[in-house]
Amino acid sequence: MLSTYQYPKFDYVRPPELSGVGKKRYPVVVVGAGPVGLAAAIELAQSGVPVVLLDDDDTVSVGSRGVCYAKRTLEVLDRLGLGEPCMDKGVSWNVGRTFFREQEVYNFNLLPQPDHKRPGMINLQQYYLEEFEVKRAQELPKLDLRFKNKVLSVTPEGDGATLQVETPDGVYTLETDWLVVADGARSGIRRLMNLDIEGKIFKDRFLIADVVMKADFPHERWFWFDPPFHPGQSVLLHRQADNVYRIDFQLGWDADPEEEKKPEKVIPRIKAMLGDEREFELEWVSVYTFQCRRMNAFIHGHVLFVGDAAHQVSPFGARGANSGIQDTDNLCWKLKLVVEGKAPPELLDTYSEERVFAAEENLLNSTRSTDFITPKSKTSLTFRNAVLSLARDHAFARALVNSGRLSVPSVLTESRLNTPDDGSFAGDMVPGAPMDDAPMRKGGQDVWLLDQVGQRFCLLVYVNDPAGLGADAVAQLQALAGASAGPDMGAAIALDVVLVSPAQTATAGLTLLQDHTGRFAERFDTQHGSTYLIRPDQHVAARWRAFDAAQVQAALARATCNLL
Q1: How many CB atoms lie within 10 A of CB 525?
Q2: Cα separation, 500 vs 464, whole angstroms
Q3: Helix count (H) and strand count (E) of the chain?
Q4: What's the CA gap between 29 and 43, in Å, rounded?
């Protein structure tokens, strides 16, 4: 038990299948009610796809576990109805500081630009995020959340999968068109299907100590190399909610995990760091090793793997839960279109392609961070210490300091869903990039761009003055705002059309966002007529210097694998 948190117990409800009244088959079943599985189920259900979520437990995760949630993840959580509770409870921060022995040698700011809704990062214990997600899941009528339902077997089939599920009332059979696997790093389903996960396990051990204390430390990330209170090793300090501080102590590979978790071993380490005068209470302790591994592909027939079930990284860089939630953000809009018959199953292949690429980025950055933090040879240690010594006074050395390259979203420039540019643009909003945010006005009210875009395809058209649009252009935009059909599937794909302008003049039948600060024009390099097609996960799919309805329809078809 924790002194700052009381674990909820969620009710087990007898599944209808055990009474002979349940459906024989469901469009989607998700296994694993951790942060990633819950995010997937919530997004599917709130977009209209019926989903069953199975978990073998009846509470949230034990211990703080995942702590850091990046700006991009917060933007995804906003679309799930979870951003505000996470922000209200979490500790926001942008600045990180790195120390070598007793001196600060490097610092960074995750959000150097003004005018973004969300900070670079918040720290929030994983059990709070899961609790918020469960509450949101229980609000959704299309989400059947089943606790104490353990998957015993999975039989993949050509058009779905059959599961055997164990409950306190017995075993039942569940059939699904699509199975989303989010059951964690030790994935039982991955093991049941005899699927490999390949990579590297690092020979080092770290101690996590969650400590309750009142301290006036700033809301920042502090990382020490070879500090006097823990010589020869590294230490990381983060503040979380409820005055809980996460401290990570590097121990070395030879450390005995069970011995190191004992209070008589942990408390002296903390006192050496904080001083004898600082009062604190030990909240939770764990010892871990870490690994950088992934599956070769994240989709196997109608079985889709997300989060730690598909890939694992070391905790330095906060790339675990963040990348998992971004997996679901990439997957769910595609799965929705396939389930509804608006896109071919081939669209789901791009989930694996795009997220394997993202996982490779995370593995590369995580491995480099680990190698810098835990050098494995005298030569590597000498190089690292030289870099740290030089970093205080020399900019070139600061670029080499690596205490964990923190989570950033992947830019999917090579995705086959993108339409290549046919004009010249400056800035970062290339096809495949996640959108930047910007402050806007809508109907005289202050809003944020990302809150107005997402969950459906969106066309942003920048105009100097909406009143100057010709009748033909207005008619074409209004027609696109109705529905666009995929040429193969023949089913309507919803497309929002939004005008963006520095002026306030409204146009009948079209949404208008006023770029009153000019941030949108700056970040998206716009001129009159600049047009952006945005995917439901807020990645840029295409852009043009001038609006052309035929080009938009072709790009939408490409982005949904509906090309002839």
Answers
A1: 16
A2: 8
A3: 15, 30
A4: 13
Please state, in angstroms and as integers, the Cα–Cα distance from residue 11 to each residue in 143, 366, 403, following that order.
15, 38, 42
What pLDDT score was predicted for residue 367?
78
Token pair for 91: 């500790």
Q: Are strands 91-93 and 68-70 parallel, antiparallel or unpaired?
A: unpaired
- Does the pLDDT value for residue 64 go beyond 80? no
C-alpha distance from residue 222 to each of 103, 109, 143, 361 (Å): 12, 13, 40, 24
**Contacts of residue 434, Cβ cutoff 8 Å, sequence gap at least 6:** 72, 409, 411, 537, 538, 539, 540
Residue 489 has pLDDT above 90, yes or no: no
- Give the helix/strand (H/E) hosting 356: helix 346-373
pLDDT at position 500: 97
Do strands 143-146 and 484-485 pair parallel, antiparallel, or not at all (unpaired)?
unpaired
Decide: 496 and 449 in contact? Cβ < 8 Å.
no
Q: What is the pLDDT of residue 369?
A: 80
Superfamily of domain 439-559: Glutaredoxin (3.40.30.10)
Tokens of 76: 């995804």
pLDDT of residue 488: 46
Burial of residue 490 (number of CB atoms within 10 Å: 0-12, 13-18, 19+): exposed
CATH architecture of the domain formed by 16-90+123-196+295-343:
3-Layer(bba) Sandwich (3.50)
pLDDT of residue 407: 66
Give the start-to-end residue ranges of the domains of the chain: 16-90+123-196+295-343, 439-559
Q: Predicted confidence band at 9 (pLDDT cuts at 50, 70, 90)?
A: very high
The rounded mean pLDDT for the chain is 92
User: Both tokens of residue 197?
Assistant: 């996960």
Q: Is the pLDDT reported for residue 483 higher than 90?
A: no
State residue 405's pLDDT score: 66
